[in-house]
Amino acid sequence: MSYDPSDDGARMSFQGRMSYGDYLHLDKILTAQHPLSQAHDEMLFIVQHQTSELWMKLALHELNAARAAIASGNLQPAFKMLTRVARIMEQLNSAWDVLRTMTPSEYTEFRESLGESSGFQSWQYRMIEFVAGNRNIEMLRPHEHREALVASLRAEIARPSLYDVVLSHLRACGFDIPPRERLDRPHLPDPAARAAWASIYRDPVRWWELYELAEKLVDFEDYFRRWRFNHVTTVERIIGFKRGSGGTSGVNYLRRMLDVVLFADLWELRTEL
Ligand code: HEM
User: Fold this and answer.
1) Cα–Cα distance for residue pair 250/118, rounded to 1 Å
2) Which residue lies with its CA nearest to atom 39 of ligand 1?
3) Residues 22-46: pLDDT tens digits?
4) Least crowded by CB within 10 Å, which of 8, 75, 103, 234?
5) Do the beta carbons of residue 12 and residue 5 sit within 8 Å?
6) Binding site membership of 120 for ligand 1 (Cβ less than 6 Å)
């Protein structure tokens, strides 16, 4: 006799009931892979991008909630959420190992099918950058043809970034940091903020929560940098120095993006400690 899991209480009939697939809308998710070529590896390429977008969706959910928690002075839940975001980035970093199994010959088989589409047009990636504080309004342009998307990106750069709310919290704790004049610009290094962080790092016992907050931000950025580095290395391994499907110089563009710094004050203060 084969083992019957219903003896252990497993429900085996879902007529008229919500099942696993219904709850997760798997019919939608698992029918959303549409390779445009006959190449075996195009499925890997599609799934890798789609899963990355799902993880980015969760990262945004956590970053937005962390920002709201910090804005209301509630740091402990924000720590947990920021740790989760760093873990998500770590997860995305491991995912490159799967994509790296694809050789240049295999990618070339379906490269034409992509046309001009590229991760450069990932609006969730831009949203993550915008939430963190790296706000380049030029990056809105690839989304102008999608009214609702561009509206949500514009709305984001009109509100205080994650780092803006962190600085507001420092002000509330008594540090003298002038507010930023333009929210829709990237954060530039701010000597007043760096001086505040330096006092915090010089006396962690007194400022433990702020010190922990700073380290959570650095952790997030650290994993984010690793993602960019893994991306550019994988890209060089697969397409060398060919131009990107999105039209940029490819690896040279991505190398330039390695210089992006989200929380410059927190990195710079390390030199003076
Ligand atoms: C064979 C694999 C891949 C190749 C050859 C590749 C190539 C490139 C290139 C050349 C760019 C620069 C823009 C352009 O001209 O297209 C780019 C940007 C980008 N890619 Fe990829 N990519 C790959 C996989 C992925 C995956 C799996 C993701 C995950 C979502 C991703 C996300 C991005 C993002 C977000 C950007 C914009 C980066 C920025 O503007 O800072 N890429 N990619």
Assistant:
1) 11
2) 120
3) 999 999 999 999 999 999 999 999 9
4) 8
5) yes
6) yes
Residue length of the chain: 273
Q: Residue 1 pLDDT more than 90? A: no
Nearest protein CA to atom 5 of ligand 1, as residue: 235
Tell me the two tokens of residue 233.
């290395």
Q: How far apart are CA 76 and CA 66, in angstroms?
A: 9
Cβ proximity of 134 and 186 under 8 Å: yes
Whose structure tokens read 């890997």? Answer: 44
From CA 17, how far away is CA 52, in angstroms rounded? 31
Which atom of ligand 1 is nearest the CA belonging to 251?
10
Tens-digit pLDDT profile for residues 153-170: 999 999 999 999 999 999
* CATH of region 39-272, choose from 1.20.58.480, 1.10.1040.10, 3.40.30.10, 3.20.20.150: 1.20.58.480
Q: Nearest-CA neighbor of 150 among 137, 163, 131?
A: 137
CB-ligand 1 contact for 254 (6 Å cutoff)? yes
Which residues lie closer than 8 Å to 272 by C-beta, 6 or more apart? 194, 198
Instruction: Tell me the residue type at 198.
Output: A
